[in-house]
Amino acid sequence: xxxxxxxxxxxxxxxxxxxxxxxxxxxxxxxxxxxxxxxxxxxxxxxxxxxxxxxxxxxxxxxxxxxxxxxxxxxxxxxxxxxxxxxxxxxxxxxxxxxxxxxxxxxxxxxxxxxxxxxxxxxxxxxxxxxxxxxxxxxxxxxxxxxxxxxxxxxxxxxxxxxxxxxxxxxxxxxxxxxxxxxxxxxxxxxxxxxxxxxxxxxxxxxxxxxxxxxxxxxxxxxxxxxxxxxxxxxxxxxxxxxxxxxxxxxxxxxxxxxxxxxxxxxxxxxxxxxxxxxxxxxxxxxxxxxxxxxxxxxxxxxxxxxxxxxxxxxxxxxxxxxxxxxxxxxxxxxxxxxxxxxxxxxxxxxxxxxxxxxxxxxxxxxxxxxxxxxxxxxxxxxxxxxxxxxxxxxxxxxxxxxxxxxxxxxxxxxxxxxxxxxxxxxxxxxxxxxxxxxxxxxxx
Length: 445
Hints:
Number of domains: 3
CATH class of the largest domain: Alpha Beta
Strand order of the largest sheet: 2-1-3-4-5
Shape: flat
Low-confidence stretches: 394-400
Structural class: alpha/beta
Strand content: 5-15%
CATH superfamily of the largest domain: P-loop containing nucleotide triphosphate hydrolases
Helix content: 40-55%
Number of strands: 16
Mean pLDDT: 86
Distance between the termini: 48 Å
Largest sheet: 5 strands, parallel
């Protein structure tokens, strides 16, 4: 797409010359003889770069920079100065201009300067689009499900998101606690700042302190240079402490100090480091029980649990399973370039009857496996793992009836014949009309 350049200058001859030079480079050009006209043009089109004289009849060029940035924050501004007024150009850069150029240098300097300004504008535009994409990906709408229990959790999380209050997410493994943490961050005033995650159970306790708080060079053998910890890296943003119940008791005290004072002393340092970090923590453990056992500090628990949010297990929200499964089917079929044309009703039924001890993470894995095994664009419950058919699963203990076995056999034959009904009927030893009747009966048609 061609970039648009706006030239604001009351000298008609100079303005027209710059317009001609830019058109030769295939830019779209607009021009105005004063600041008011330029601002009106800026509101009507997506201008990439503004070239403006520092001296205009109706407005000071430096003041105009501020007004341009208010109208179009991403726009880059090049200031034209006369000989002897270079200090105006320097002042303009301090106010946010990209660069300045002295009049008389337009012929050989203006085009390279505009190209650099355009490149910077395009980079900022890409970053803005990326930030919007990330925010959309991790907002509360991205959390699938419409059950009352998940909606209540989302409402609670959205209310606390706009504050700086610490949040404790409680729930079984695989329920989506990190997704909630991301949604809280990207719905907060810190959304443009870092969101960093540390899994307290994945890093040995000997290394965890260094990861969290960093250290000064010489703090211990091997510390040859200063290291920033995650608290510093996440400054002004959010730090997600996953599996906080695994945090060693000695580190709990140091974490509590950071939460209370917003500072800490690195190993090997004598001065404190100031930070402004929001904490979101998560655990699948019963911290109140661990407090009684002396494993977790009560003062830290009360500090991080100002707002507790229970993330429900998948078996508590079975009505959401079909929606979640449909999302993963769409995701993996596109990823594997496999078109899924039909899904048996029994496929969804088996999913809804299963308890999913691994929650959403397990559902995702099951769907990925099913897409890999699928043939002929058909998903049947014969693609599900064997545990979905165990009688120990209370919900479907009595489901393996004769008709279920027959249905499974029909599905298997259809898969082997690439969903060719005529060949399938021949393989089954039944008439085509009978096959169609059974497909209708079993909800496979």
